[in-house]
Amino acid sequence: MTFDAATKMQFLYALRSKGVTDTRVLTAMEQVDRADYVKGTFADRAYDDMPLPIACGQTISQPSVVGLMTQALQITPRDKVLEIGTGSGYQAAILSKLARRVYTVDRYRRLVQAARAVFEANDITNITAFTADGSHGFAEQAPFDRILLTAAAEDPPGPLLAQLRVGGIMVLPVGQSDAVQSLIRVTRTETGLEYDELRAVRFVPLLEGLGQE
Ligand code: SAH
């Protein structure tokens, strides 16, 4: 299966029916072929609206969830974005179509290397992917306009909140790893932090330290 006009139409229709209505987000998702980020046995399911397994026991998120999280971030073209949880690199590629610069971090070196290779093959040059424990954020490049976590924390990590600029938005799943989590949006205002609860989600947990692959 290829990401041809008919497949794209179906893919975008499924996204819209799940509430992804922001045209800039839909256009970005039309520009990124999910099959490039899903390898092996599951490649033929790349355009289905479901999470799929990737290397290191991790998952590429469901496209509609990627769309809803991206939409909630309200990215503008001048934004510098930090993503925690590179995984396959699919979400980062979509962010790269909307933002000026994307930094993405994963605790598995192997995932970061594979994602970099796909970015390069697709001529995506505004993403920096690196291996680290992302719960500390990336102080060298802080503050960020937008921060996205694609792994669930029990609470928003303090170092990440500290790296969000005034007016900045962070979107993340919070909750216990094996229970239903909530996707929340945190906005930093002049006077503090505002929290919105968006919907129930299920993500892999945010873990400490580096992965062993
Ligand atoms: N955004 C990804 C999906 C990520 S799955 C995509 O589009 O494919 C969640 C990822 O978070 C996993 O790859 C996992 O290794 C990573 N992760 C979990 N805890 C982490 C941490 N503390 N720092 C960095 N990455 C972490």
UniProtKB/TrEMBL annotation:
InterPro entries assigned to the protein according to its UniProt record, in alphabetical order: PCMT, SAM-dependent_MTases_sf
GO cellular component, as recorded: cytoplasm
UniProt keywords, alphabetically: Cytoplasm, Methyltransferase, S-adenosyl-L-methionine, Transferase
Species of provenance: Yoonia rosea
Catalytic machinery residues: S61
Xref: HAMAP family: PIMT
Family (UniProt): Belongs to the methyltransferase superfamily. L-isoaspartyl/D-aspartyl protein methyltransferase family.
Reaction catalyzed: [protein]-L-isoaspartate + S-adenosyl-L-methionine = [protein]-L-isoaspartate alpha-methyl ester + S-adenosyl-L-homocysteine
A GO biological-process term: methylation
Protein task: Catalyzes the methyl esterification of L-isoaspartyl residues in peptides and proteins that result from spontaneous decomposition of normal L-aspartyl and L-asparaginyl residues. It plays a role in the repair and/or degradation of damaged proteins.
Domain of life of the native organism: Bacteria
Name of this protein: Protein-L-isoaspartate O-methyltransferase
Entry EC no(s): 2.1.1.77
UniProt main location, coarse: cytoplasm
Subcellular location: Cytoplasm
Taxonomic classification: Bacteria, Pseudomonadati, Pseudomonadota, Alphaproteobacteria, Rhodobacterales
Gene: pcm
